Amino acid sequence: MSEIRVQGRFHIVYVLQYIRYGLLLCLVPMLQALLRFDLPSLYTALRQDTVILISMGVFSLVIWRRVGFCLTDRALTLRFGLLFRQELTILPEQVAVVELDRPLFLRLMGCTRVRLYAASCASFGRVQCYLPRRHAAVLAECMLPVKSDSSLFAPTGAERIRFTMLSANLLTTAALVVFSARQTQEILGQNLVFDLGQLAMSNLERLEQLVELVLPAGVAWLFTLVFTLWGIALFWSLMATANFRVSRSGGVILSKGGRINHTECRVLASAVSYCDIRVTPAARLLRRYPVFLCAGSYTGADLPILVYSKGQEALLQALMPRFTGPQPVAGITQKRSWPQFLWKSGSLFLLCAALTAVSAWRLPDLTPLMVIPTLVSAALLAVSAEAWFTEGVRRNPNGTLAVCYTRFFTRHHLCVFTSDLSYTSWQTPFSETIARCTLWIHLPCRKRLRVRSIKRYEADRLKLVL
After folding, report:
1. Per-residue pLDDT tens for 84-132?
2. Can you give the residue ranges of every domain in the chain?
């Protein structure tokens, strides 16, 4: 007989998604009122919006009363659906990662967003639900119990600064700023957002005027925008990495932290498919490299599990005993094709250099602005040339797979622990004459790794060892 640990309905936050659909439907009557632009049409639109919101509220409450969960000592059962009932039963051995996320707006309501990732993508993949805080903690402890959380990695001082800088993501922050601006426009209205935008633009223009004292006008505006986004990214990373620590208890890797948004991630160590050491431009300057984990259907997050430097293999081996540090592959450059690595970045560099030369000849005012993409493409060309010396794959003595490949400005060093792999090799007539091929490695998380211009007999040998 199974013992029930906790059971009940999802948190009321679960129905907010249906309320959002109702708000979108309310735009239709308001749009009709704006087209007619008279007072009776406005009253009609308000009555229709009221009916829509009440209907969506009743519909959401009906759904909320029919969904729920039941956690026993053997399994977790989730109930979904209104007309067609769906029950999903998840066993503890099927779970690779439990992720608890508590943003500020969920903390105020005592709610936790729970994500469960399957140990195999062939099962349920990923499931998300909203539970009360106490129930979420019990669920995480039942699925992946942690007996002790003595820290193996807890950055402080200068190490905290490096960890914050390496965790900052400029692209993610830019997307977040754009999304937040659109959400604010929907909530506060066009006029108020326009005033806030004017205020932000005036402050940016003042900062641009200061930068123009050192840099040309066009470059100053671009530098100001990048500097502002980078500052926001650093602040967001600073909040996310506050009180961050990583530990291992038995077979579970635990990471938690955050100042405004509290996060906790429990990873089953035996389900880890690979760890990824990323050599980014910032990592090259700081000589510290962020490490990301992939386990089952969990492909990692924006926040790394820890920061690695040469000589710290013992730290990663404490988390994953089979870890082997990055090592060069012998004879990797013999008969390797330069064009396969350089044709994209080289073409981009030549194009930017040609445009810069033309601007220097015909439009000198644009030359400082054109120098920036030329320098960026030159850096990309240098990273591609480095990939000619480093990109490769080999089997480690302990049975793990070492993979090194380059994507854009980042070099990835992977230590693959799982043997659940498949391979695809690809050859051109030219690469066939020099007995080399491009190898695609397919992982359980549906991710593909591309390793260019490796020896054909080494690729065939990898395919035989499964």
Report:
1. 778 888 888 889 999 999 988 888 888 999 999 998 765 678 898 899 9
2. 1-75, 91-153+244-323, 157-241, 327-466
d(CA 345, CA 373): 12
CA distances in angstroms from 228 to 163, 207, 233, 375, listed in the order given: 20, 10, 9, 21
Residue that is written with structure tokens 């926040």 in the block:
303
Three-state SS annotation for 430-450: HHHHCCEEEEEEECCCCCEEE
Contact 280, 166 (CB under 8 A): yes
Contact 49, 26 (CB under 8 A): yes
In sequence order, what are the beta bridge partners of 308?
Answer: 289
Strands (E), 31-110: 68-72, 76-80, 86-90, 95-102
pLDDT, residue 187, reads 40
Name the nearest CA neighbour of 68 among 141, 140, 3, 129: 129
Question: What strand order describes the sheet that includes 436-442?
Answer: 422-426, 436-442, 448-455
